[in-house]
Design brief:
The chain is an alpha+beta fold and 272 residues long. The protein is built from four helices and 18 strands.
Length: 272
Amino acid sequence: MRLLSFVTVFLFSFSLAATGFAEENDTSVSKERLTPEELNYLVNEVGNTQEESEDLPVEVSRRLIEEEAKVIDSGSEFMDIYDSEVTKPGQISTFASIAATTLKMGGTVYKVKSDRSKEDKFYIYGNFQWLKTPSFTLVDKMSIGFPSGSGLYLPTSGGKVKQHQHRYSQDQQGNGCWIDYAIKYSPSNWEPSAGVAGSYDIRASTSKTKHKGYIGQYVYVPTSKNGKINIKITYGHKKIYGTPSVSVYPAGLSITPNNTTDTRSYALTLSY
């Protein structure tokens, strides 16, 4: 009995140490998969396509199932970004001579079961994937923006925006083995009733490496309000140096385009 107790304590201690190590490094290899039943539910009950269901992160999928989510609008698009290359120290080659780097980008807005009386609740999700690794691997950003007059608002507590997630993942060899970096539960930027943004530290890579990430934010609106608005999801790719900045426009918070930040946007429509 004493030996069994000692082994139990040792294994428990080892488990805690391993968990602490994983948290300290903020990375994990994607191994968990949805069951066939969960995938079917996402397609037949939630309203995602098969491709969207397979692309959704497991942690997002299971939360949507639990919240009895329904798709309001969704889609994706392949976009070309002409990434510059440094040919000599201090010299940047012209965009016309650079092959396009392909970015797959999309988003979905879901209506979910509300946890607040007399208020509707929505989950806005945006995602990206580099199908060809970019020349510059700096800090990029993705934003979710909506008009301030829409009535939508961000949940807050303790002076911070809550019910938010964004995460970056990397497939180093391009063989489907994704490394997930830690989920961030606070936006990098936000504006009241206008939207949020997340930042992504694009890690060093080879020509085989793929990169992807997502941003998700819950919003509320009083059930007494009704309307139809556009939601703008924008990806900002930083070239040369620095990190993308954000601005607030009539359409909501978005990445600020300039000569060192290339932006691509995807539009969703929300009726409430």
